[in-house]
């Protein structure tokens, strides 16, 4: 994983790279993130984070991760692969409502009034889960007061532009440029680097 | 000036230490006994320290410096959000406790952000109830110097600021420790512990300065002595809160609501005077507590002089007008 940073304060830049690394380690995401770039300009009240995620696991059918059988007209699931348990439960809640889904034990679910066929054809998409987790990491990183946000999402790249006051066009353009560079993978193969503010100002 | 020390040793002949402390005019602040071992926090006149050291050697114990004992310190963060808590704010608070301080962690309601960061008058008054405040800020010098500095302006207790970037000077604070910014993990590396030590030393310096300031116009009675007199009150003994009485440099916090305890506190006898004559008793902003601010000797003397002149005026007023006329005649 490679984290790049540019900004106006050297100390802050270094600390935020370390903070992001620690947050990703805490959330167990170091292997799921390909690279990231932070643009930190406290004097402009601007903080941009752009992250490229690694390819998430491909979508799987419910029948591939759980045994589904009929029990008195209800679908009875026994989860075989525990790592899919949380997204599967979330998917069932979303599709059929919490009142119809009963979790009997850690790996057993009873879906009231739902046929086996309906459940088996459902698809679990871990990519969505990964995106949520990375977004959580970014929110933990962003300064607390920078509540005005603009998001850019691509297939594997997400960029969050945040500021304290009005979201200016200049900030959005900077974010878009960083987003595009990340989509193209520019600079991802380089080591962690700190770009001086003066050099960057010419680009802006 | 009183010095606070902690005796760590056995219970054998411990009464000799208590008697000696009493003889030299000191006080026992706290005793914690675990089976045959005991730790005793004592406040003694600084010039009598060698006597206590000799007694400690004789009893086979050791004396530990607890320079912040008898103080209550607020560690303040911009908010209570996970960006600031538990690290490094709780790490700092925990480290100060090792030096004997009672610490309270608090977050401001609207301290986040840059230009939007603010502190209310209520929050300032709340912080001013403590002996000193430690403000823990972030990683950007521009943010601290231009905006966060407003948070600790015009706070009447000594303030120490802890921040990330190296800043040479910061207004409105008595001490500045750089090198501790935002953290997401516990401060346990050697260099981080060194920074915690530096913070504790900075707090110790500002507390010492405050003590010296108090000694220029000394208190009528040491807070530890008042504590000894009031800890036997029934309401105080019934209080289930940890440390029902907390010592401050210029008074104490009693963790019982004022409407319940005021009359009892007022009636406590201190050298032939009532406590309310030599101290201001007021409600604490921290719900359910009472603040006792001990007056200085000069304040008590001035209060006495005022009362005396008031009595003299009343006596003159009570004399009948005829007798006054007679008195004027040659």
Quick recap of the structure?
Chain A is an alpha+beta fold. Chain A has 7 helices and 12 strands. Chain B is of the alpha/beta class.
Explain this structure to me?
The complex is a heterodimer of chains A (204) and B (330). Chain A is 37% helix and 31% strand. By secondary structure, chain A is α+β, with helices and mostly antiparallel strands. Chain A folds into 2 domains: 2-56 and 128-201, no CATH class; 60-124. In chain A, strands 10-11-3-2-1-12 form a 6-stranded mixed beta sheet, with helices on both faces. Chain A has a 4-stranded antiparallel beta sheet with strand order 5-6-8-7. A two-stranded antiparallel sheet of chain A has the order 4-9. In chain A, strand 7 (101-105) and strand 8 (108-111) form a beta hairpin. Chain A is elongated, with a radius of gyration of 21 Å. Chain A starts with a strand and ends with a helix. Chain B has 330 residues and is α/β, with parallel strands linked by helices. Chain B has 3 domains: 2-65, Alpha-Beta Plaits, CATH 3.30.70.260; 72-214, Rossmann fold (3-Layer(aba) Sandwich), CATH 3.40.50; 223-297. Chain B has helices at residues 14-23, 49-59, 89-98, 121-127, 141-146, 190-216, 223-230, 234-238, 258-266, 275-278, 297-318, 321-328; strands at residues 2-10, 27-34, 37-45, 62-65, 72-77, 102-107, 132-136, 159-163, 175-178, 245-247, 251-254, 269-270, 273-274, 279-283, 290-294. In chain B, the strands form 4 sheets. In chain B, strands 6-5-7-8-9 form a 5-stranded parallel beta sheet, with helices on one face. Chain B has a 4-stranded antiparallel beta sheet with strand order 2-3-1-4. A 4-stranded antiparallel beta sheet of chain B has the order 10-11-15-14. In chain B, strand 10 and strand 11 (251-254) form a beta hairpin. Chain B is globular and about 80 Å long. The model of chain B has no long low-confidence stretch (mean pLDDT 90). The A-B interface holds A 8-9, 11-12, 15-16, 19, 22-23, 26, 42-43, 45, 140, 143-147, 164-165 and B 78-79, 81-84, 112-117, 138-143, 164-166, 181-185.
